[in-house]
Design a protein that fits this description.
The protein is of the alpha+beta class and 195 residues long. The chain is built from 4 helices and 8 strands, in the order ββββαααββββα. A hairpin with a 5-residue loop joins β7 (138-143) and β8 (149-155). The chain is extended and about 55 Å long.
Amino acid sequence: AFGVKGMFSDLKHHEMGDGFKELDFGGTVNTLWRTPMLWGVGSGFPWGHDGASLTIEDAILRHGGEAASSKTAWINATSAKRAQVMTLLQKLVLYDVETLHCDVDGDNAISDHFMVAGVDTGYERFNAEWLFQVPVQIQGMMTNGNGVNFLSCACTNIDQAYGRNLPLRLDTDGDCWPDVWDAAPTTVGYKDGVH
């Protein structure tokens, strides 16, 4: 009764070759996958049904089987043509919270110089870490090895902001079991330091 446009999928199953091979719990090797809707491919990573591709290009290059000709076309395309395809794919975003302009402080305006813990973070956008009881403190302006200045939003107070040293979260041996549950909190291992 209705049509959906812009899915960028044929909704069919295709033989995808060794790049997408997966062994299931029953021991069956599967290389047959349904073409997913690409309408959110630019929303983030990782890509592929298994999340094994950390870049869109890696996902493209994993294609084989029935998609081998498309992979070959990508490899043989000019850099300009590949850039055009990549630009299209990166625009297929469902919801991009990291760059979404947002009135975080509720002053009915979006600031071009939003301050978080005394650091100018650029334009005001949604970042849940800025709303913590103890907001993250970001590094701010940095210079990379090539002498290029950039804004680093890396958290410099992660233990305080995420409460990693709170009594019920403290994990002395770093085995992901809080000390309050761990019978051997200074020996790595599940609860008793062994299992």
